[in-house]
Design goal:
pyruvate-formate lyase- activating enzyme, Rossmann fold, OB fold (Dihydrolipoamide Acetyltransferase, E2P), 33% helix, 6-stranded parallel sheet, 5-stranded mixed β-barrel, binds 5'-deoxyadenosine, binds iron/sulfur cluster, alpha/beta, 461 residues, 12 helices
């Protein structure tokens, strides 16, 4: 291995400050980069002013997310003027999408790397330290071709990276796939994370085992389109097989996965919810719109009726399954009638919660070139109506939990209120409980006593 001259592996630790935007994929990537930096004798600091290395892990999904990165880079430029030894690294989807253009616009960046180049971080830091110039790596991961390996071949040799806080936590992410082959017309992901590349079942099981060995009780399998897992070379998807292999690990209590495109969700995976209790009673299934003409222009490849059919599969497996979704309002050409159809779908399905966004045109995506863009004021007004409707549904569902006894996996303690612990039910509802001892990592029955829009309150029984 080449010498990494930027870091002094045996000397005084250097300090890294990490800021992460965007989805769980980015959160998982930040953990991975931190694990690589820990091997180079870096320690995490929450204080940006004392950092030797500031790492921004960026998101490009909407213009607002990109703007935040640019304004943060402005602040860091001023800070770097006072601390010339500071290194600024920009990772993630803005780095991939904008590459050299971003370096030109923000020359204070010393290292720039896309999500497919995470493993190059130590090399890029070293290159920058040697040359004094900006070092860059973008582009996408290549296909693995050893899909034949079976989970039984695996020893738990993979090393679990520490979490960002340096502690091992109860709920951890496992990346199963990079990229996406779906090309929805609004979405920048194919340009920031490339085409689908799946890890092998053996790799995913090995990493899962390693995380469980550190005390994790819940795992979330991550990918942009998890249901097509394993089909990158035109083979049939193997996601159900992967779920069975991970669920079979005895130390695992709960298994979640995200993100599911309804187009690729199979009956086999929906049916697994009936037979595999570790999957719980919750799924995030983004629909984006309740109008067929809009879904067609988004190139979602499912109709509203097909989406509802998948909801029926899930509800026949688990009758009270909680389903959440993503919605975009003000997609080009969205009429009042289209929007009314979205509102009607929200009521019909009764989502447990929704993430709703105003459409934001992204460079290179087909929808950004559509001529019938919707005025911002109309998007604002529709978003408000949608929020009001969803809030009333979520509140109603949460109030209906009062007096139920639910098994809760406790995940963390309250920062603001000592003695309070937060966990989640199988339906993924957030629960707060007061206790005299540390509950983190335990699954305990809780009687729900009150509820509001955001959380349930309860007592241990
Ligand atoms: N504008 C607004 N929302 C978007 N999303 C993705 N691309 C855009 C865009 N251009 C939303 C979708 C997706 C979620 C992660 O972000 O709802 O499911
Ligand atoms: Fe943002 Fe998409 Fe990149 Fe995640 S994959 S960080 S949501 S642009």
């Amino acid at each position: 291995m080449s010498q990494v001259s930027d870091v002094n592996v045996t000397g005084t630790p250097k300090k890294v400050h990490v800021e992460t935007w965007g989805c769980q994929m980015n959160a998982a990537d930040s953990e991975r980069m931190l694990a690589l930096l820990a091997q180079q004798n870096y320690q995490l600091t929450p204080i940006v002013e004392e950092a030797d290395l500031v790492l921004l892990n960026t998101c490009h999904i909407r213009e607002k997310a990109r703007h935040k990165v640019l304004s943060r880079l402005g602040v860091l430029r001023d800070l770097k003027e006072q601390r010339p030894g500071m290194t600024i690294a920009v990772a993630g989807c803005v780095a991939q999408a904008e590459g050299r253009r971003l370096l030109k616009a923000a020359p204070q960046i010393d290292v720039l790397l896309g999500p497919g180049k995470i493993e190059d971080l130590p090399r890029l830091l070293s290159e920058h330290a040697d040359t004094g110039k900006s070092a860059l790596a973008t582009g996408f991961a290549r296909h693995h071709d050893d899909h034949a390996a079976e989970p039984t071949d695996v020893d738990a040799e993979a090393v679990a990276p520490p979490t960002l806080s340096g502690k091992h936590e109860v709920s951890r992410y496992v990346n199963i796939q990079q990229g996406c082959n779906n090309y929805c017309t609004f979405c920048v992901v194919p340009f920031t994370r490339g085409r689908e590349v799946s890890r092998t079942i053996a790799e995913v099981v090995a990493e899962s085992k390693a995380l469980l060995a550190t005390g994790a009780r819940e795992l979330t399998l991550l990918g942009q389109n998890v249901n097509s897992y394993g089909s990158d070379n035109g083979e049939p998807p193997r996601f159900a097989e992967l779920l069975r292999a991970v669920a079979a690990l005895p130390e695992l209590d709960r298994l979640r996965f995200t993100t599911s495109n309804p187009h690729d969700l199979t009956r086999e995976v929906a049916d697994l919810f009936a037979t595999e209790p570790k999957l719980g009673r919750y799924l995030h299934l983004p629909v984006q719109s309740g109008s067929d003409p809009i879904l067609h222009r988004m190139q979602r490849k499912v109709t509203v009726a097909e989406y509802l059919e998948r909801v029926t599969w899930l509800r026949s497996a688990v009758p009270d399954i909680a389903i959440s979704t993503d919605l975009i309002v003000g997609f080009p050409g969205e009429t009042e009638e289209d929007f009314a159809a979205t509102m009607a779908l929200v009521e019909k399905v009764g989502f447990s919660f929704t993430f709703s966004f105003k459409y934001s045109p992204r460079n290179n995506t087909p929808a950004a070139r559509y001529l019938d863009q919707i005025p911002e004021s109309v998007k604002d007004e529709r978003l408000t109506r949608l929020h009001t409707l969803q809030d009333s549904i979520t509140t109603k569902q949460n109030l209906a939990e009062i007096n139920e006894v639910r098994p809760v996996l406790f995940l963390y303690h309250s920062q603001k209120m000592p003695g309070y612990y937060y966990g989640r039910t199988e339906h993924y509802r957030l629960v707060r409980v007061a206790a005299e001892r540390n509950l983190v990592g335990e699954i305990l029955p809780v009687k729900i006593t009150s509820a509001n829009k955001t959380a349930l309150l309860g007592d241990l029984v």
